[in-house]
Structure formats: structure tokens, C-alpha cells
Design a protein that fits this description.
about 0% strand; single chain; elongated; disordered N terminus; mainly alpha; about 525 residues; 32 helices
Length: about 525
Amino acid sequence: MASDPQSKHRMQVFKNKGKDQDEMRRRRNEVTVELRKNKREETLQKRRNVPITDSTDEDDIDRNLANINLEQLVMEAACENPEKQLVAVQSARKLLSSDRNPPIDALISSGILPILVQCLENHENPALQFEAAWALTNIASGTSAQTQAVVGAGAVPLFLQLLHSSHQTVCEQAVWALGNIIGDGPGLRDYVINLGVVQPLLAFIKPDIPISFLRNVTWVIVNLCRNKDPPPSMQTISEILPALNMLIHHTDINILVDTVWALSYLTDGGNEQIQMVIDSEVVPNLIPLLSHKEVKVQTAALRAVGNIVTGTDEQTQVVLNCDALSHFPALLTHPKEKICKEAVWFLSNITAGNQTQVQAVIDAELLPKIIRNLSKGEFQTQKEAAWAISNLTISGNREQVARLVQEGVIPPFCNLLGCKDPQVIQVVLDGINNMLKMAGTQVEALANMIEECGGLDKIEQLQNHENIDIYKLAYDIIEQYFSELEEDVNLAPQSSEGGFQFDPNTSIPSEGFKF
């Protein structure tokens, strides 16, 4: 049976026992696409600094800016007269701060970038440095090409110098600009890291920092942790983790949400990064956030701990040892569907663990809630529940699988065989096959349950499915467990050619379930 593709498929849903890690990672990416879209709105990779004004002020500004001659503006920005220069740079900044289609490309084409960069070096005039840094921040908030234009003009080393300015407004604006550049992607992120951004950035995290400034610093840390192709270096991660361990205690919701998202990005980079996060001892502070009153915090925390339990059994156990499962009755019945979906996804990785971990899910009385999501959730949540159930039928022992049957899993599980998603159908068939194999003397009772809820009819129909793996597995289940009820020899694949014959001695326990 070892070469049977069905067996191979079943092995792949294990977390550690010969499972195809790439398959599991791919699956996790599929699961989280929707939440990643939502996340883009919560922690934007780039931000423009737009001052808050009332609408009449903005209309006046728009009218005044419409009359500006860019050529004249560039000349005045480069002039020797400090007052004229400051007014010109401020006008450029106001143009770029307009909430309605800022003329970023027009200003880049005007040749003002090198002049703005030069203004960053004018340490005698912090007001000019501030205005130039603000203008460059907003240019760098645009497209990748616009961000690259700021970098190409030589701004990054000067922004790094400004992190040491004695004027806090200048420091803060430099942090914001660097955050936009780092947020462009892994290339510029690593460029800025290599020039030495991490230590001076983290030095701002101290008790007397104003809250708005700390929010910006935390957002830049998120951008440093973001992107996994490639991820940040181990050195960078080890420098950032102690800061995240401090920030996770912060009472400001924006700072807390960004801190937890930073941890979720770091735990999304493979087992080595997961271990670094565990070794930083942040996990005990992360778990209680699963029950935070703010949904934004819960969402981020659920993603971070969900990423950790995609690791090894030992890494998963660290999360379970912090009493993580006690938070899941509420998460599995959360009014927000996306939280339910991620909660079931989390549990699908616990049921893919060892039998002690499977038992922990049972002891926390989570099986009925998983089954409820299997029965009543939206399809994406049902899909996750199907994985959770199927994984349990592989990882669990006979008593654990019997408990699943006793909790009423069969009707909603069989119901999913009528869906259009071949992957879900295969996961459910695998689960049903595993349950029947483990049923022993109770196999007839289990087969009757499957028939009574309409499952047998669905399995019979799947013998005509276009997917070869699905129709062969459906045939095998009928042949092995339902052939006394119905036999159609014509449907059978030739065992000598196909090699899909069941070995009746494989994995069938001598006793079976006790219902």
C-alpha cells in the first residue's frame, strides 16, 4: 500500500510524519489570502503624511497650489535665500500633501528631488530639514518607481543621519520616510537594514516617547518584519524580537495590533523563525490576546499563534502549554466568520499533531464546535473543518476517532461530498475511509450511519467523478465496505493494471469503535 497515491495523499496531511511541507505551506497561503487582503487596510505598507484640515482650508490650499509654476518653485527651492527656500520647499510639501491626486510624477520630473535631498543636510535649518523630509516621505509613499526615485537621489543615508537629530519632529519625519522605503519590498528593506537602520530605530522605544511617534516606530518595525521572499536576516530578527516583547505590553491599540502583526510575519517564515520567536519567550504574552476585546488584536494574535502551530509537534506544544485551547470555544463561535475560519484552521494543525495533542482538543470539548462549523459555517470555514476532521482520523487513535463519530460528525462530513471543490471531496473521502478502516467490529454500524445520511449515494455518484483519485477512492470505499449492499463489477478498475486494490489487513483494528 505504500506506493498507493491515496496513502501518499493521506501522509501529506500530517504535520511531521513524512508530510510534504510545501503542500502544507501552500495550503496555509490559500487559507489566509482573504485575511491578508483585509490586513492591507489595517497596516499599510506605505503611508502619506496628510495634515488634518477642514474642507474649506483644503479648498483654499488647492486653489493656491493650482497656480504654482513648478519651474519657478524648483528655482526658489535651490536659491541661497533661506526664507525663500523654506517657503518654496513648504509649497512643494503642501502640493504633495494634497489629499486629491498629489502631483508626484510632475515634481519628480521637475528635478526637485536632488534639491530636497540636499536640504536634508542643512543642519542649521531644522525647519527646512523637516519640510524636505516630509515632501520626500510623501513621494516615497507612491509607486515602487516613485520610491526608487527617492532612494536613487541618495536620500536614505541622510534620513539615517536625521534619526540622530536633536529635533524630534525631524527624527519622526525621517522614521516615517524610512518606513515608506522599507515598505516597498524586500530589496529596499535589506538595503536600509544594511545601512544600519535597526539600532537607531529601536533606540526610540523608551518611556518618554510621544505616542504618535511610537506608533510610527512600531509601524516601521512591522515593515522590517514583512515580506518572506526573502525574509529578513536572522540577525535582524534577533535584534527586533526583544523590542516586540516590550511593545506587546503596550496599552495603545494601534501599537499592540502592529506588534502582533509583526510577530505573525516572523512566524510565517518557517520553523527556524518560529523557534526564534518561541525562544524570545513572547508566546505566553501572545496567547491571552486571543480573547482581547478588540477584534483587530484577536485577528492578529490568531494569525501569529496559527503560524506557530504549523511548526513541529514540539513548537505546537509550547502554544498548548500556555492554555491556548481555553480561548477557542469563544473563537469558534465568534460573530465574525473570518475569526471562526482561522480558529478552525488553527485546530486543523493541532489535529495533525500527536495523539496527546488530539486528546487536548477533545478534552477542551472543541469537537462539537468544530462539527458545528463543519455543518453551518461558510464554505471556506467548512473546508477548514473538513481538514481538521480528516487530520484527526489520521493522527488519532481508535478511541479518539470513535469520539468524533459519537459527536455526530458523519452527516455534515458526508454532506460536503456534494460540493464542487475536488480538494475538499478528497479530504472528506480520506476521512471517511480512515474511519471505516478503524471501525473494526463496528464497521457495519458506521456504514449504516453513512448510508442513512445520504453519504453512500454521494460516494456512489463520485465513482463517475472526472478526478481519477476521487473516483478510485470512491470505488474502493464502496467495494470494501458497501459491496454487500450493491455491486457493479463494471465500475471496478482492473486491479492488475491500476494497483488500487485494498489490502484488507491494513490498519483495521481487531476490536473497533465502541459507540
